[in-house]
Design brief:
The complex is a heterodimer of chains A (about 80) and B (about 775). With about 80 residues, chain A is an alpha+beta fold. Chain A contains one helix and five strands, in the order ββαβββ. The termini of chain A are far apart. Chain B contains 23 helices and 29 strands. The chains are: A alpha+beta (about 80), B alpha+beta (about 775).
């Protein structure tokens, strides 16, 4: 199962859970599953997120694949100058 | 992208190393496509567009740092002959609480944005727009502003970030409850958000340390300092359609903002970006554009608006001023055992400082087991901050890299060796979480160690400093088309304003991918009607994401060219390959037909099926992070306190430098902005919260005589997700500069400065105080 790490302020919505293991094939299904488990996570949370899958950064990328052994970090969205 | 084309595209990424050996254009110093227009004055910047019967718009700005607006009376202004329209808060529909949505790279709070472009309940900073007029000329518009009557109730204000965080501070927003803390505070404050990153056991880490150093830092707000002020021309027609010409980093993003603020269909607004005289993040947002459109809608005439330099300083996005505390522990052998940073950033009048990015970048150059960064986003009575080149990172890394330098000195270790011992590398857990892929942090340090600059001797009285820096880089939505012309030349259309030479780099990648001569590719920036959506030029993304789009469009075009050749030869498309800019029959058909070049296919394309257009619209992912290392030598005049830069070297990983000349220019430009930030630039406020130095005479950016020739070294650790290995290069060059210069001044004077800028009065006072 993929290792999911919640960074930033996401832990406030997950009763303090910072890390969990989940089977999720894509970013979209991961977010759905997290929202199912932790309903306090806001509906539009994905708009504010960047997702690192095995060290590769994704933003606004619903269908990016998450492998069974992937390490996934949910981070604040990154914008530059 | 069709499946067949997508497979070919993906194969070319896998095959990058092989293609790298035969590159013809990528990596060369090709002529600059915008060069002639710029040096001859043909290039059109934001203020250079004119339309018949055009009006001139001007903005009335708050003289108060914080004031409730009781009433606005436009009657006398509107009665002035020559005045054609005026707008206030009433002309911009309010946006609901929670009107937050992604727009380009950022998530925009439109409730705040509509209040920033035109004050509603309160003026929240000196220079905040409160009304605007359009008149037949600038003189009449200026006269009309003086006739607008506004009844203000002046309120207490707060500028400094520490003051703004104190209980009892004047509240910029009376109902703001801090996000990111538990339990949720009951009382409002100016603290919009708290963020936290890190891993490991901080207490255990510090317990292992032989030496721990803890310092507090303060930096003053600065401006991006682009030479071209904000400028636009808006033309709204009676049928509800509009055109906008403006100087912007993202005309698609500007279109979205304006349409939202004016409640119009996005498709009804066509935006054309001008050449841009600098942005550095400051032109990723809108100020004048929706106001000019609103005035034009009322007047039914085109309206041009251009900020004065003073307006740019008082009303457009500066950076955060900060207060930062850093603690780092290390063993006597030089292994960092723990690092902690608490970063407090001014957001300006609305939430959204770059403190999250600062907190994520602060320790990124290091492989740490125990690390924590906490950030606070704090409202104050200043313009809302806008992005500035690696937003937040130069500040957080200034504080951390200063303490790193002090630790190295305390441990009697060479500062580069100390950094190398602790450097992030492929497989390291970054300080903000994810493991790094292939990165060039170690390479930059190793090159620095062996660079002639670092090995050279200092002159008496000089000091030398080094520092590392990091920025993520981003990708995002990007579109490109390649239009084959009937003579075999190719028009490349992209939708990202060219700020740092991207017309050149994108054309070079197009020529490379197509296998044709570079002078056969004409790069153009299309308006918002020309292409699918494009995110803005920012986040060091365009050569990365644009390169993917251009390579994708070339792959698409090549497939069509092969199809045309195959049909002409009456053979299967799989038996036609594209080599050296021409279609070649292979396998059993090798001898059947000669190669078919681009011109051959182009001249007959009407007969073979019609226009050939290579297209790619993508949401580019996998931007490669970039590390840099700066070496600086300074001279300090102990009589005046003036710090001069004697020698400066920038070493940075570009992934692949498509056009090394432009990459070097980015490195040099970032370093120069860092020199200004470190040594002179700062907003100075009076006791009423008014800016005292809103002009380049009193707000001193570096000029040519302030900087030596800045040496550069381009490191190339390819980004594996890109067809040419490109990472972004635009932002990292600013990140290490503040700390490197501060470390050099410490080395020269044996005085550690913990406040920026190190301007002559501050340096002189420190020298005198040290005796």
């Amino acid at each position: 199962m993929a290792r999911i790490v919640l960074s930033g302020n996401l832990r406030l919505y997950t009763e303090g859970v910072a890390e969990l293991e989940l089977e999720s094939g894509s970013i979209r299904s991961l977010i759905r599953e997290l929202r199912r488990r932790y309903p306090d996570i806001p509906e539009d949370i994905e708009d504010e997120l960047a997702v690192s899958i095995d060290g590769v950064l994704h933003q606004d990328d619903w269908f990016a694949k998450i492998g069974p052994d992937s390490e996934v970090h949910l981070l604040p969205r990154i914008s530059g100058g | 992208m069709a499946a067949a084309v997508e497979k070919i595209f993906n194969d070319t990424i896998t095959d990058r190393e092989t293609r790298d050996k035969t590159l013809k254009w990528v990596g060369t110093r090709a002529p600059r496509p915008d060069g002639v227009d710029k040096v001859t004055g043909r290039a059109k910047f934001g203020a250079d567009t004119y339309l018949p019967n055009m009006l001139y718009g001007k903005v009335l700005r708050s003289p108060h740092a914080h004031a409730r607006i009781r009433s606005i009376d436009l009657s006398k202004a509107l009665a002035l002959p020559g005045v054609k329209a005026a707008v206030t808060r009433d002309d911009f529909p309010d946006q609901p609480e929670g009107a937050v949505q992604p727009a380009g790279e950022m998530v925009i709070n439109y409730r705040d944005m509509t209040r920033n472009i035109m004050a509603r309940e309160k003026a929240l900073y000196e220079g905040h727009a409160v009304a605007a007029v359009a008149a037949v000329n600038e003189r009449v518009a200026g006269q009309a502003l003086s006739l607008i009557e506004i009844d203000y109730e002046v309120l207490p204000h707060v500028i400094d970030v520490e003051e703004a965080m104190k209980p009892g501070a004047p509240l910029v927003r009376e109902d703001l409850i801090t996000e990111g803390v538990e339990p949720v505070p009951e009382a409002p404050s100016n603290i919009a958000k708290r963020v936290e990153f890190g891993h490991g056991d901080l207490d255990a880490g510090f317990a292992q340390a032989d030496v721990t150093i803890e310092r507090s830092f303060k930096t003053q707000p600065v401006h991006q300092g682009y030479i071209e002020p904000h400028a636009c021309l808006a033309s709204f027609s009676e049928d509800g359609q509009a055109e906008l010409w403006c100087s912007t980093q993202g005309h698609y993003v500007a279109r979205g903002h304006c349409a939202r603020l004016l409640q119009m269909d996005v498709s009804k607004l066509r935006v054309t970006c001008s050449e841009i005289g600098g942005g550095f993040g400051g032109k990723t947002v809108v100020y004048l554009e929706p106001v000019a459109l609103a005035l034009s809608r009322k007047a039914c005439k085109p309206v041009k608006m251009v900020m004065t330099r003073e307006e740019v300083f008082r009303a457009s996005g500066p950076t955060s001023g900060t207060s930062m505390d850093v603690r780092i522990g290390a063993t006597k052998e030089g292994r960092i055992t723990a690092g902690e940073a608490i970063l407090k950033f001014q957001a300006g009048a609305f939430a959204g400082s770059p403190v999250p990015a600062a907190a994520m970048c602060a320790f990124a150059p290091y492989d740490l087991e125990n690390v924590r960064t906490i950030g606070f986003d704090v409202l104050c009575n200043r313009p809302k901050v806008a992005a500035y080149r690696a937003p937040g990172a130069p500040l957080g890394e200034y504080a951390v890299e200063s303490v790193i330098d002090e630790l190295a000195k305390n441990l009697n270790l060479d500062p580069l060796e100390f950094r190398l011992q602790n450097a992030a590398k492929e497989g390291s857990d970054s300080s903000y979480g994810p493991k790094f892929g292939p990165i060039g942090c170690v390479e930059t340090l190793e090159v620095a160690q062996n660079h002639d600059h670092y090995l050279s001797s200092l002159k008496p009285g000089q000091g030398r400093g080094v520092a590392s820096g990091y920025w993520f880089n981003i990708g995002g939505q990007t579109s490109a088309t390649l239009n084959l012309c009937e003579d075999g030349s190719v028009a490349l259309v992209v939708g990202t304003p060219d700020i740092g030479g991207t017309r050149a780099s994108l054309a070079m990648m197009a020529a490379e991918s197509l296998g044709i001569e570079l002078d056969k590719v004409r790069p153009l920036i299309g308006d918002t009607s020309a292409l699918g959506y494009n995110m803005l030029t920012g986040g060091s993304r365009v050569t990365f994401a644009g390169g993917i789009a251009v390579h994708g469009a070339a792959t698409d075009m090549i497939y069509q060219l092969r199809e045309r050749a195959a049909a002409t030869w009456d053979i299967p498309v799989d038996d036609v390959e594209w080599h050296g800019g021409q279609a070649v029959a292979v396998n059993g058909y090798k001898e059947q037909e000669g190669p078919m070049g681009l011109l051959d296919i182009a001249k007959d394309m009407a007969k073979s099926g019609g226009p050939i257009v290579g297209r790619c619209s993508t949401n580019a992912q996998g931007a490669g992070p970039s590390f840099g290392c700066h070496i600086v030598d300074v001279d300090v005049d102990k009589e005046t306190g003036k710090v001069s830069i004697a020698r400066y070297t920038v070493i940075q990983d570009a992934g692949k430098a498509v056009h090394p000349g432009y990459v070097e220019g980015q490195y040099q430009g970032g370093a120069v902005q860092g020199i200004g930030w470190a040594l002179n630039e700062e907003y100075i406020y009076d006791e009423n919260g008014k800016v005292e130095n809103a002009g380049f005479l009193d707000y001193r950016v570096p000029v040519c005589s302030d900087v030596p020739m800045i040496d550069t070294v381009i490191i190339e650790v390819p980004n594996p997700t890109h067809p040419y290995g490109v990472r972004g290069v635009g932002e990292t060059p600013l990140v290490p500069a503040l700390a490197a210069i501060s470390n050099a001044v410490e080395n020269a004077l044996d005085i550690r400065f913990t406040e920026l800028p190190m301007s002559p009065p501050r340096v002189l006072a420190a020298i005198e105080s040290a005796g």
